[in-house]
Specification:
The protein is mainly alpha-helical and about 100 residues long. Helix content is about 90%, strand content about 0%. It has one domain.
Length: about 100
């Protein structure tokens, strides 16, 4: 919301400058340069607004990916623990069969 306020203040300032140029009836050369400066400031404000929006969107995407990576990590840990417990059960049952002399 802050960037909207900055853009609105910037646009109001641009309108005030344009009106003052029109009222003061300055020479054509100065007026052309000031109009170019006014256009450049307007484009700069637009770039600022778009940059901030893109930054916020990138931050949201990074946050969502962080959550997804954490969930995936938890699932991998759970699967790793399951594999370890299955391996222990398998190795203990294999020792029981070898200890009894049962080779079936």
């Amino acid at each position: 919301m802050n960037e909207i306020k900055v853009v609105i203040v910037g646009l109001i300032a641009l309108v005030i400058v344009a009106l003052s140029l029109w009222v003061l009836d300055e020479p054509e050369i100065i007026q052309d340069k000031e109009i170019e400066i006014t256009i450049a400031l307007g484009v700069g404000l637009l770039i600022l607004l778009l940059d901030r929006r893109a930054d916020r969107n990138i931050h949201e995407i990074i946050h969502q990916q962080h959550i997804l990576v954490n969930q995936t990590h938890k699932k991998i840990d759970e699967q790793n623990e399951l594999i370890k417990s299955l391996h222990k059960i398998s190795s203990s049952s294999h020792k029981d069969h070898v200890g009894n002399g049962d080779y079936s």
